[in-house]
Structures are given as structure tokens and as C-alpha cells.
Amino acid sequence: MKIPPPLDPGFAPAALRNRDYRALAEADPSARVAHLALERPDGTVFRHELRLLGVRHPRAALTPRHVERHLKFLLWQQGASRVRIAGAPDIVAYLNEKYAPGGERAFDHAFMGEKVFGETFSVVEAASPSALPEARSSALPIGRNLDGCRIGFDLGGSDRKAAALIDGKVVYSEEIAWDPYFQKDPSYHIEGVHDSLKRAAAHLPRVDAIGGSAAGVYVNNEVRVASLFRGVSPEDFDARIRRMFFTLQERWGGVPFEVANDGEVTALAASMSLGADSVLGISMGTSQAAGYVTPEGNITSWLNELAFAPIDCREDAPRDEWSGDIGCGVQYFSQQGVARLAALAGFDFPAGLPFPERLVEVQKAMAAGDARAKAIYETIGVCFGYALAHYADFYEIRHVLILGRVTSGPGGELILERARAVLDAEFPELSGRLALHTPDEKNKRHGQAVAAASLPAIIRAAS
Fold first, then answer.
1. Cα–Cα distance for residue pair 349/361, rounded to 1 Å
2. What domains are there in the chain, each with its CATH number?
3. Dihedrals phi, psi of 32, to nearest 5 degrees
4. How large a percentage of the chain has pLDDT more than 70?
5. Given pLDDT bands bounded at 50, 70 and 90, which one contains residue 121?
6. pTM
7. 172 CB-contact burial (10 Å; exposed 0-12 / middle 13-18 / buried 19+)
8. Is 37 helix (H, G, I), strand (E, B) or coil?
């Protein structure tokens, strides 16, 4: 690294590791190409190619881990339950061992299989590249609908927001504190959202459409996986939470109702605000949320769960307690990441102090000129600069919007400054075409709710 993170000098950027591996493979006359097809039960297929070192190359031992980390990133970026690989039978065996019920990636096996896509996760060998299915994906041309009387809502871990709009103009917005994570009763969640919708509807002559955003995985308005509902039993989740937004839609007379991952709506809000496409939105808050707007201006059906996508390749990288994996974004770009770095910086917090309160104390220290707090934000910024270069290997991006509580105040400015310094020093070509943004005050207040409200199209009767 030309610019090491001050509190985390062992950080091993995936962007640099991958660049070095690619250089080795390009120079290897015996190199081979692995063809990957990531498939979903609905017929969606993502295709990828990786140039790999020949099996007798002196550094061929790097290859299995290189492919596994790529697959891990792709799974959490795009989402799939079946993986087929042609051109690297030795790697298939390695991946099957890792992504088995008892393997290192057992969590991913269960999550990408039964939990999200309703079938057993599998990695299999294909006889040849021609035996793999062709790419088949879809972008979602939803959003940017601002006609009529709409409600937009956003469900977070500490509050729920709602706004009422008339022809795109916000006429009411409200933020209500709630504590959803460990609530066992599904009614707490359903009635809480319903209450916010009623408060917003009181400021409209009628309700034509409702759109919402929330952390988690949502497929066709169904809740598949979401930390907001972690306290609900599996039985109650299936019976009442999985289709809770259909229940709410019925209460509101069947009006058009769309719910999307909060990261996708963040990216949509950025695209609408900037008047630009090829946008990656990243929120550093309770976790790391992300969303993407394509060069064509659409949001995707991808997962974009970059909190659990690896960015640090060292063998002793910090471990995520949920997925069990190491070196993933949540440990660097979230309140949890701030708490981890605060301990390295010398802050001594009571053991039970929640992460949001630790962040507040770090922000106070930063405002007071505390060098320890400055080192935390410098470290986040450096890691983020390298992570952006890694993301650019997987996304076509021209704009990045950074927001969330971690980026508030002077600390957020320092994060951007150090990230830009890394891009300039290590990846000048990327730096020249990548614009970094933070939301303006209007978007901080209303951007997410407006974008959420714009998700559904109003179906007009034919005249």
C-alpha cells in the first residue's frame, strides 16, 4: 500500500491482491480461463470469467483462495443459489468443500440456498463453457414516479421515517424512534409501519401509491431476510412477516405498493438528485448498505449486500459475528467498524455501551480535535479508497454517494479526503472518472423518502 491505514496497517486490500494476481496470470503462458455461471431458480443467470494461473505455475497455490473470494463477492453482490464452473475442475472441488453445510462458508450455503432462494445451494462442474447457460438478468425500471399523492417510508434499526408527497413536493415528513431488532411480536412491526402510513396519509387528500425502503433482502415485495425482524420466531416470520407488505397493501385499498432494499433506494435517490446514472450508493450506519443504478438508469435485482462482501485479504482480518467470514465491509464501514477502531485508537468504553453511543462519543471527540478520533476517520477513509477500487472491478460506476451516521460531521469529510488520496495515488485512471458525493441538506432530510415514494407507478384507467 502506498497509503496504509494508520490504525490498521495489516489491512490487505483486495483491489491490490487482485491486481497483482491478474498481472501474474497475464504473464503466464499456461494460464487458463474459468467460466462461472451464477443462477437463480427464476432463470436469472450471471456470467463471469476469471483468468487463472496454470496448475503448474510456481504460485498456483494462490488460485483457490483467489477464486473463492471472487465467488463470495459475486454471491453477495448479485445473489444466486446455483454455481456452475467450466475450465477449472480442481477449483470446483475446493469450492464444494468450502461452501458445504459443515464448511467455512456454511453460512453462505444456507443463506443463498434455502433462506433466500428456496433451494439447496450447489457448486457443480460444467463440461465446457458452451454447456453453461447464457446470461439472463433484468434491471428494474421502477422509481422516478412523482405524480399524484404518495407516501414514502424508510425502516431503519433505530427509527422509521415517512413522508407525504403531492406531485413530488414533500408536504409532510416525520421520524419516529422504534426498537425493532428484538421485538418478538409481528404486530409491533406491522402496526408500527401502519401507524407511520396513517400519519402521512393525514396530510394528503387521498393516497395513490406507497413506496418503502428497508434493510434486508426483498423479492417481489416479500421479506426474505431482514435483520429488522431478527427477534421474530421462524414460524411467525413465515406466517405474518414474510408477506407483511401485502397485508399493508390490502389495508390501503390495494394501491400500488413497492418495497425495495434501502441501499437500492439510496442509489436511486442519488441518481435522482445528481441527474446522473452509473451510481453506487453506500450508507455507513448500523451496517453497510449499498445500492446501484445502472448506466441505463435502472435499479437491479441484485442483492448488493456489500456489508458481507470481502475487501480485506489478510488471514487474520476481523470476523463478522453474523456470517462468520473475515475481512467483509461491515467491519470497516459501519458503527460496528467505528467501535472496532475506537478500541485500537485507545478509547475505553464500558463493555455494554451500544455501538451508536460509541459513535456519538467518537464524533464528539472529533469535533474537539482529538487525534485518536481523527485516526479512526483516516483509517476508515483509507480502507474505503481501496474498497472503492475493488467495487469498480465489479460495478460500472461514475458516481459514488456516501451517507449514513458514520459520515456525519467533520469525520465524514476526512473519510472522503483520505479515500480520494488513495484513489489518486494507487488508481489514478479510476480516480479521474469517479466522482464522490455526499447528500445536500435537502436530500439528507427527504431524499430517501422521496425516492421510496417514487417506486410504484400509478396505474391509470384507460380513457
1. 9
2. 31-135 (no CATH), 142-264 (3.30.420.40), 275-447 (3.30.420.40)
3. -130, 170
4. 97
5. very high
6. 0.90
7. middle
8. strand
